[in-house]
Amino acid sequence: MISCHDAVRQLWEYLDGTVDQADRALVEEHLSRCRRCCGEMEFAQELRRLLAGPVPADIPAEVQRRLNQTLEEMDR
Amino acid sequence: MDLLDVRPGKTVEDSRTDQRESFRDLASSQLPRLYSIARRLVGDDAEDAVQDCLLKGFQRYDQLKSAESGPAWLTTILVNSCHDVGRACARRPQAIDFDDVERFSLYRKIAYEDPFPYSDSLHLDFLGEFGPEDVHAVLMRLPPLYRIPLVLVHMEGFLAKELARRLDVPLGTVLARLHRGRKLFEKELWEYAEETGLLKEGTS
Questions:
Q1: How many domains is chain A built from?
Q2: ipTM (interface pTM)
Q3: A51 to B150: CB separation less than 8 angstroms, yes or no
Q4: Residues of A engaging B, defined by a Cβ cutoff of 8 Å
Q5: Comparing B14-18, B138-142, B159-163, B189-193, which segment has the lowest mean pLDDT?
Q6: Which domains does chain B have, with CATH numbers?
Q7: Is residue A15 classed as helix, strand or coil in its secondary structure?
Q8: Is the per-residue pLDDT at B120 higher than 70?
Q9: C-beta atoms of A57 and B39 within 8 A
């Protein structure tokens, strides 16, 4: 059995799939009996979605023009 | 890509010209994607990073094994260019109390501060206040050393071990940076929300 502190500390790694089999089983056992930590896990999943969300900026026309110019001038 | 590609009636110089043209076609088609990744990795230094990537890619184009792997090959070069830019930025002194960061829990902070008293989905409502521009601004508050692995794993879908190989650092180092980066991201989300009045707007 592990404490809430230990379970929460490993949640992101658990969701990444980078904890080993034994630790994975301990986290799952803890989650099966701790409602608060299940809430933490759902929150961690949402945070990951937020992080993976859309990128705000398209490439500005002026930047694209300068980078294309770099390509055109290569090896001349 | 090599001399075998020299077609009948064409000289080696013709073939090199074809190679240059083919690199330009590849790079040109990938520019928006490369710039978008670089923006998230190094913010305002994105243009410099992409330019560095183009120059290095051009110099090493003969190392590309097949046209299909061109986009992934350019991404690897870009990641290293961004890492170089990030390393240069990381030399600036940044006082971060990691004991304090390690103790911080955004989940508990939201529950304790209760910014949406009438909500029955407090934590999700908090995250719902952040648009793409806000998330970007929060990521830019993180030192590049922690931001880069975080973005590559969560936005680009890299595995930690793949990242270790591409950045040429031990896996343990990447995992430690990811852990610290996530904790910092949580703390900066809260501080950004407080500083920009995001929560007040949310409750008005």
A1: 1
A2: 0.84
A3: yes
A4: 8, 12-13, 16, 18, 39-40, 42-43, 46-48, 50-59, 63-64, 66-68, 70-72, 74-75
A5: B14-18
A6: 3-90 (1.10.1740.10), 98-203 (1.10.10.10)
A7: helix
A8: yes
A9: yes
Residues 6+ apart with CB under 8 A from B13: none
Q: Among partner residues A12, A59, A74, which is closest to B58 by beta-carbon distance? A: A74
**Domain that residue A15 falls in:** 4-73
Confidence of residue B170 (pLDDT cuts 50, 70, 90): very high
User: What crossing angle do the helices spanning B132-140 and B12-42 adopt, rounded to 10°?
Assistant: 90
For the stretch A39-66, pLDDT in tens is 999 999 999 999 888 776 688 999 999 9
The amino acid occupying position A13 is E
Distance, CA of B17 to CA of B7 (rounded, Å): 13
